[in-house]
Every structure is written in C-alpha cells, then in structure tokens.
Design a protein that fits this description.
By secondary structure, this protein is mainly β. The chain has one domain (7-139): OB fold (Dihydrolipoamide Acetyltransferase, E2P) (Beta Barrel). The protein contains one helix and eight strands. 18% of the residues are buried.
Length: 154
Amino acid sequence: MAYLNKVMLIGNIGKDPEIRMTTTGRKKVSFSLATSRRYRDNNGETKEITDWHNIVGWGKIADIIESLGVRKGMSLFVEGTLTYRSWDDQATGQKKYATDVTMETFQLLTPRASNGAPQGGNFNRSASTPSYDNNMGYAPSAGDSSEMDDDLPF
C-alpha cells in the first residue's frame, strides 16, 4: 500500500522568519503562514476564517529564505509534509503538542523589484519570483533561462 503525506499552502507570512542553529549546527527557519477561506453562514452572509500554520525549513532551504529577505506580509507558496511534535511544559508539567509543515519546496509570490528587494503587488510568475525545491536545489521560475550563479542578488 502506498502512503502520502503532502501539504500545499498559499498564504501570507504572519511573522518574520526566525533563523536558528541547532546544537548540531543545522540551520532552521520557522514562521507562521496565514491562509483564509470564505463561506456563507446560515443567514447567507459571507464569513472568512483564517488558519495559522507553523512552517519549518531546514538546511539550504533556511539559507535561501534568509538570503531572499523573506518577511512578514509576503505571499508564499509552500509544499511540504505534516510533522507532529510533543514536549512537556516545564512550567506546568503538561504535555504540549504542535503540528508543523516541514517545507520541502516553496515559491515566493510577492514580486521583487529590479534591485532584488521584495515589493507588494499581485502574483507574478516571472524570473523575479524565485522558487526553491529542497530536493533539487534552486528552481528558476518559468521564463528564467539564466544559469545559476552564486552572486545572484537573492
């Protein structure tokens, strides 16, 4: 039997990404991502619910998020897996639980200005909206035929 653990989200970053080094020297990035959905209630009124997701990235993906200058309010497509963790709260002794999305691939949806700085605006699939695949390395957006270069501004 085949199994699948796949999550795809498009949303806005709710807090600036936090970059940390683990005790083993591995880089970790974490941030929240807000997704919203609309529905009609029993009275026919349109309502909106916002869900908050914990996003975690490791190693190179954390490096890329940091170098892109990703910050609160930017739009992002994230693809990854659901992971669960638990710990004992030191203050209360209670067991705590959290669900995270471990990022494997992402694409920055907030367009970037020609100087490399992120800017507001609508989704734009161009060379100025890079994506990254943790398994394959940097994945240029559609229309970006230039070769990878270590001195790119992002």
